Amino acid sequence: MLAEIAAAIKPNEERLTLGGVSLIVREMAAADELGGDGSPEDIFMRVVVRCVFNEAGELVMSDADIPELKAAGKTKLRPLLDAVQRVNGLVQEDNTEKPAPGPA
Questions:
Q1: Is residue 96 part of a domain?
Q2: Residue 43 lies in a domain
Q3: Into how many domains does the chain fold?
Q4: d(C-alpha 11, C-alpha 26), whole Å
Q5: pLDDT of residue 16
Q6: How many CB atoms lie within 10 A of CB 43?
Q7: CATH number of the domain residue 56 falls in
Q8: What is the pLDDT of residue 104?
Q9: Which residues of the chain are under the pLDDT cut of 70?
């Protein structure tokens, strides 16, 4: 049964190529910390840097890269941002926002 549970809680992932670089976008682990305060954009960028890995499974960015990410062209960065949102369940498969939960 442990194998079934482990498979059920395995983080979501997507593969994409950005600027000719193969990336793995993986759902944030429950234990990951975002730390600090900031604008919603800053917080989301901290999520981004914690979700993007190379083929060897190593993070490719850190918080030090956030200013450069924020300065990037939105249309060029959009595929990465969309993938981060999808694997973390922030949007539906068609990239529309998930509806807010209603009363139970």
A1: no
A2: yes
A3: 1
A4: 6
A5: 96
A6: 13
A7: 3.30.2220.20
A8: 46
A9: 93-104
In DSSP terms, 14 is beta-bridged to 25
Specify if 73 maps to a domain: yes
The Cα 29–Cα 43 span in angstroms is 16
61 touches 49 (CB < 8 A): yes
Residue 95: inside a domain: no
pLDDT tens, 50-62? 999 999 999 999 9
φ, ψ at 27 (rounded to 5°): -55, 140
Q: From CA 104, how far away is CA 25, in angstroms rounded?
A: 32
User: Exposed, middle or buried by CB within 10 Å (0-12, 13-18, 19+), for 23?
Assistant: buried
For residue 26, the enclosing domain spans 2-30+37-87
